[in-house]
Amino acid sequence: MKRNNVLSWESYFMGIAHLSALRSKDPNTQVGAVIVDEDKKVVSIGYNGFPKGCDDDAYPWTSEGSTLESKYAYVVHAELNAILNSPRPVKGCTIYVSLFPCHECAKAIIQSGIKCIVYESDKYAESESVQASKRMLKSAGVSLRQSDKKVHVNVSED
Fold it and tell me: Which of left, alpha, beta for 119 (phi over 0: left; psi -120 to 50: alpha)?
């Protein structure tokens, strides 16, 4: 007799996004993303962090101060990292992300041809960035769905 209490696909992919987020060194916000094709195959993953070759100790992790003194000018978001890390085009894919995409990530998602965003948290819904993001995504016909599956991944290293 088969086991019936298996993870749904949505919980599985959101779990991968959360696991990826654990790679982020950002002390305040860890975001993960996973891009999945129509056959439910993982195409790419990403998390928020500095670009390749940029020393994590040489750049600021603070969210306060001027543009050059804060992380915002330097961090690559999880969604963009997942798109850039993909070994193949992501047109027609779905992206699962732990936090609703900002306006910059929305532009990359639209341009890459991703057709659907499944997100968990929308804690910045009132921000102008997310409002702009939703406006562009709606105009471009990208499907948006907030996951009702709360996934938490706890990993301890011995």
Answer: beta
